Amino acid sequence: MSFKVYLANTRGMCAGVERAIKTVNVALEKYGSNRVYVLHEVVHNFHVVNELRQKGAHFVESLSEVPSGSVLIFSAHGVGLDTVRKAQDLGFAVIDATCPLVARIHKKMNKAGAAGTDAVVIGHQGHQEVVGTIGQYTGDPDKVHVILTAKDVQKLELKGTRAVFATQTTLSVDETAETVRALKERFPFIEGPLRDDTCFATQHRQSAIKALAAVCDLILVAGSANSSNSNRLREVAEKAGCKAYLVEDSSKIDPNWLKDAKAVGLSAGASVPEYVVDEILSHLKGHGMTAVEGIGESATVKSFALPAGLQQD
Ligand code: SF4
């Protein structure tokens, strides 16, 4: 067994995820571990959540689990307006770690709700980000529609003659383009972004994985099973004709996958810490890796300011 590893130079944590993790860390320093609660996983990564839990953060799925007097952090995926209001009514000190790129979509939904315009959200039904996005629509609930594929567009019934669309930020760029095309064809009056709302991190990581697929016969994507953007990376690699697996870390790598591989690609989803990539690389070193080569350009590193109330000098 001997293979070379090609490492996607654009991989791993995005600015929104870094900000959300830093938010929890700074809140822990400022308020102490007993008081800091996070509604849902702050980002969809097992290692990140585990590390923060060990530092004292509490992760809950419902506001009823949060004791009074707590500091409550909303995850990077965002929440709906009813959750914001309930949290305020319960008197929690709320810190909103919603990624600013998701918050931008929330504003569009607020506007559509206030105007009574139909709103079409392209995304995965039930995903935390989509739940938060549709929860930002304040109008008639029958006027908010969640779809995913171009096929779904054909079944869509709008209630009025004005409509806007928005998308989940972590979708497949190519599949979303097809859905948006079908949407604009069927409803030429629909308003929305020029292309879609997939974020720069999603776009750059998907382009990078296509470059990996062009030179590899196997791709490993580091990421958790519930991470939307990590799953999309694996799918994009497979669509580009390369066998691909999503792995939490090296413990999930099946040695049989590597048996006949000559060129193994490695990337990581936007919520994955770099130490997971390092750990996988050192595992591969002990299992036949002969060399590592970076592929593609490194995307410009962006950063977002911390939420109000936590900003540091
Ligand atoms: S994947 Fe995109 S939208 Fe999601 S947290 Fe990262 S930058 Fe924000």
Q: How would you portray this structure in words?
A:
It contains eleven helices and twelve strands. It has helices spanning 15-31, 46-55, 81-89, 100-115, 128-134, 150-155, 173-186, 200-215, 228-239, 255-258, 274-285; strands at 3-8, 36-39, 58-60, 71-74, 93-96, 118-122, 144-147, 163-167, 218-222, 243-247, 263-268, 289-295. Helix 4 runs parallel beside helix 5 (128-134) and helix 8 packs parallel to helix 9 (228-239). The longest helix is centred in the N-terminal third of the chain and has 17 residues, at 15-31. The model has no long low-confidence stretch (mean pLDDT 96). It binds iron/sulfur cluster.
Number of strands: 12
Structural class: alpha/beta
Kindly, what is the distance between the CA atoms of the first and last residues, rounded to a whole number of angstroms? 52 Å
The first-level CATH class of the largest domain is given as: Alpha Beta
CATH architecture label name of the largest domain:
3-Layer(aba) Sandwich
CATH topology-level name of the largest domain: Cobalt-precorrin-4 Transmethylase, domain 1
Q: Residue-averaged pLDDT, rounded?
A: 96
Radius of gyration over all CA atoms, rounded: 21 Å
Strand content: 15-25%
Low-pLDDT stretches are none
How many domain modules?
3
Name the overall outline: flat
Helix content: 25-40%
Q: What ligand molecules are bound, each kind once? A: iron/sulfur cluster
Give, in order, the helices and strands.
EHEHEEHEHEHEHEHHEHEHEHE
**Major sheet attributes:** 5 strands, parallel
Q: CATH homologous superfamily of the largest domain?
A: 4-hydroxy-3-methylbut-2-enyl diphosphate reductase, catalytic domain
